[in-house]
What does this fold into?
Amino acid sequence: MGLLEETKNFTFKDFSIFKGEIKGFNFRIIILHINQFKEIYKTASRYLRDGIRTLYTKIGENIGKGFMDIVTTKKKADKSTAFKFILRSLERGGWGATLGNIKIDDENNSIYIEIQNSPEAFEEGIASCFGIKGILKGMAESLYDKELEINETECIAKGDRICKFQIGPRENIPPYDEETMNSLNKIMNTFKTKAGAIATLIATTEGRILFSTFSDEIDQDKAALISSMIAQASISTGEVFKVGLPFTTIHGDGGQLILMPVEIPNKKTGFLLVAEIGPNSSTQLAGLAIKSGAKEVLEVFKK
It folds into this structure.
C-alpha cells in the first residue's frame, strides 16, 4: 500500500482509550470541543490582541515543519509525497477538507490551496486561519527548502464561501498593491529621520516584515513576533490603566527600542512600527516621531 493510500484507512473506530490516553493513527491524541479550541484563541487575543495572530502563525509554521520532518524521516517519503500525505492526514483529523483543490507549481515554488470547513474561520470579518496558514507555510518551506510567504486571500470568517491560500516567493506574494507599499516605505524612512533612529521596521500584526533597515545579524522574524506581542499587550495595559494609547520603550545598555502598534479598525488589520535609537537619544522625540508615523499609516488605509 502506498503512503497516500494509508490515509484512507485512518478511522476513529481503531482508537483505544487506556488510563486517560487516547491512541489512534499510531500516536496519542486528545479531543477538544470546538468551542474550547476557540476559547484558547479568544482568551489569548483578549490580552495580546492582534499580537496573538503572529504567535499562532509561528506556532503553526513550526508544526508544519515538524510534520514534514517526521514523515520524510520515519516514513522515508520524498518531500512531495510527504506534503500531500500531511494535507490528507489533517483532513482526516478534522482540520478542513481540500477536496483535491490544490495546485502545486514546483518550477515557481508556488502552491494554491482551498480548504473547506476550516476550524479557525471564526473571527468574524478577517481572514483568521492563522494556525493553518502557519502550518501550510512551514510545510511549503520544508518542501522547497527556502523562505516563502503566504496570504489567505479568502476566508469563511470574512463571508467567503471557502478559505483560499496562496504560497510563493516574497516577490510573488505582495501583501498590498505597489502604491500602498511605496507609501509605507516612505513613512518608515520619514519617522526614521525624525526620530534620529539607528534602524526602523514596519511589520504586519501577523508578523510579516514589510520594510526594515535593521542589520541582517538580527533574527528579524523573531524580533517582529516578540515586538508585536509586547506592543499589542501595551494597548491592553493602556486600556486597563486608562492612560490612552501608549508606545512602548525598551531600554538596554546599548540603546533603546520604541514600539508602536497601529490598528486599522475598518480593515480589521494592523501594523507594528519599531525604531532603535541610541542610549543617549531622546525617547520623547522618538515617541513623537513614531506616533506621527502611526497617524500617517492610518491615513494610507482611510483611502
Observations:
- The mean pLDDT is 90.
